[in-house]
Amino acid sequence: MLSNLTGSGCMCTSLIGSFCGVTKEDGYLTTSVIAMLCMGISGKLAYENVRKLGNESFHVSLHDAISKMDTEILKRMAIIRES
Fold it and tell me: How confident is the model at residue 65 (pLDDT cuts 50, 70, 90)?
């Protein structure tokens, strides 16, 4: 559903900028990965909340999921693969 949502790319850019803005080290790549992880997990949680409803319901649920994101949710739901 993220690919069908207008503004999701802008939200990704915003998250990356916000995460990098509070980084005190030169770990911008890691910080950017964590920001996208936050977006992906939020998308999954939002989809689980609205499943068969429309894009606007998903959009609101996505904002809710991002605003409620915390370290515990990230740790529990993160799937990271190195290639």
Answer: very high
